[in-house]
Amino acid sequence: MSVIVTEAHLRTALYVIRSLGRKGVMVVCVSEEKKGIGLASKYCWKRKVVPSPKNDPDRYLREIEGLVEAYAVRVIIPIHENSLFLFSQPEIRKRFKSVEIPISDYSILQKAADKGELIKIASSLGIPVPQTYFIDDLSRLEEVTKKIDYPAIIKVRLEKNVNPGPNNRYKKVYNPTECIEWYKTLHEKQPFPLIQEIIKGYGCGFFALFDKKGKLIASAGHRRIREQFADGGPSTFCESYYHPKIWEYGEKLLTHLGWYGVAMVEFKMDHRNGEPTLMEINPRFWGTTPVAILSGVDFPYLLYKTALGEKVSDKYTFTTGVKLRFLKEDIHAFVRDFKKERNLLKKIDLSTRFLLDLLNPFVREGIISLDDIGPSIFYLTGKYPSWMLSNRDKEAI
Questions:
Q1: How confident is the model at residue 387 (pLDDT cuts 50, 70, 90)?
Q2: pLDDT digits over 201-252, tens only?
Q3: Are 251 and 208 in contact (CB under 8 A)?
Q4: Tell me: the pLDDT tens digits for 104-118?
Q5: Between 229 and 82, whose confidence is greater?
Q6: What domains can you pick out in the chain, each with its CATH number?
Q7: FRET partner for 270 with CA separation of 20 to 30 A, picked from 46, 200, 209, 369?
Q8: What is the separation of C-alpha 319 from the centre of its chain, rounded to a whole number of angstroms?
């Protein structure tokens, strides 16, 4: 029994490859890149370089069809938005009718991915959202910027075709002049971004798997302790976490959308009232997938079983308080915060907490694994461990 995992060079693909490979599933790893952290895994049964699903979708789909036939593939798991949105289109689903692709339909993904549309849907469901300013005419920009409480944040509505990180997908602004300047900059990347109030508090997420009938069959969650960027971004250190309102809001939103497959609904715990406030939906595997797996909910394998129509037991164990670290990024996050902090006592507190976490034998690593050393070496050194690959697969990389 085999499965195709797309964009296999990515870190999020590595989590899926390891999960399925450890369960004995034969994983066909496809990627437009020749090297990458996921491709270094020993659990890649086959590796295949394919055209880009974004730049050459026709050739890409023909290559995937050939792999489906050659390796009797039963399931395709898209990893990145490029393949996710492509495979979600109705005509593409019909083309691959012999294979199960456990993702939501294109129209549903569009609603989830568009931050503006999502804010409106969540508000109608009574889910707390940040105060949001919608602009559909640049002539109104100056007028709107005078009404905003600063600092504020500007966000593109759709992230899939925009490079990640600050200054690309979002920008924190401190006054009307800066807001106008950066709004126009982000507007050039993607028309009419949103302007939102900044919610202060820790980030937290609701992880979910829904079956084809839109029923929730597995869930977990996390909270962020340290983040990659000063203004947010992916976790560098987090822990498994449960909050009843996050579960309520996350399930309510995804059920309303008619979700199929995995998703992470991201919230921030507003320090003003202790309420979780919706940030966005990640409609694919997320960066902290390992914390869910280590906490007892193996989403990649459960997704695979769901795609095959197998019954997934709801008697899994979700353990809270499991801590996860991404070593390189966490060191960078600590150094950044340490340099930024001016108060000596706070510097000491930051250093103490970081060192205690670093030396804690119960903190788990997100990528480094003695069981699968190839990606670990690639992650730490940036060098591709070709000596670990079988001769059969070297020519495919």
A1: low
A2: 999 999 999 999 999 999 999 999 999 887 677 899 999 999 999 999 999 9
A3: yes
A4: 999 999 999 999 999
A5: 82
A6: 2-101 (3.40.50.720), 131-197 (3.30.1490.20), 199-366 (3.30.470.20)
A7: 209
A8: 21
Residues 6+ apart with CB under 8 A from 229: 165, 166
Q: Where are the beta strands (DSSP E) in 106-187?
A: 132-133, 152-155, 170-173
Inter-residue contact 277 to 5 (CB < 8 Å): no
Distance (Å, whole) CA 286 – CA 208? 11
Q: Which of these, 54, 102, 78, lies nearest to 5 by C-alpha position?
A: 78
- Give the DSSP per-residue string, 144-159: HHTT--SSEEEE-S--
Tokens of 244: 């009843």
Sign of CA dihedral 186, 192, 198, 204: negative
Q: What are phi and psi of 199, to 5 degrees?
A: -90, 120
Dist CA 243 CA 73 (whole Å): 38
CA nearest neighbour of 86 among 58, 50, 112: 58
Sign of CA dihedral 277, 279, 282, 288: negative
Q: What is the pLDDT of residue 229?
A: 80
pLDDT of residue 392: 43
In this structure, are residues 340 and 230 in contact, taking their beta carbons and an 8 Å threshold?
Answer: yes
Stronger pLDDT, 253 or 387, i.e. the higher one? 253
Give the whole-angstrom CA distance, residue 218 versus residue 312: 8
Using the structure block, give the residue that is written with the tokens 């490859």: 17
Spell out a b/e string for 119-143, using b for 16 or more CB atoms within 10 Å of the CB, else e: bebbeeeebbbbeebebeeeeebee
Q: Return the axis-axis angle of helices 327-340 and 344-359, rounded to nearest 10°.
A: 170
What the block records as the tokens of 22 is: 């450890």
In this structure, of 29-43, 53-67, 224-238, the range with the lowest mean pLDDT score is 224-238
**Partners of 227 in the β-ladder:** 235
Mean pLDDT of the chain: 92
In whole angstroms, what is the distance from residue 281 CA to residue 394 CA?
Answer: 37
Task: Look at residues 393, 374, 364 and name the one whose alpha carbon lies nearest to residue 240.
Answer: 364
φ, ψ of residue 287 to 5 degrees: the values are: -65, -25
Stretch (H or E) spanning 31: strand 26-31
Strand pairing partners for 18?
none
Pairing of strands 203-210, 216-229: antiparallel
User: Which 8-state DSSP code applies to residue 40?
Assistant: G
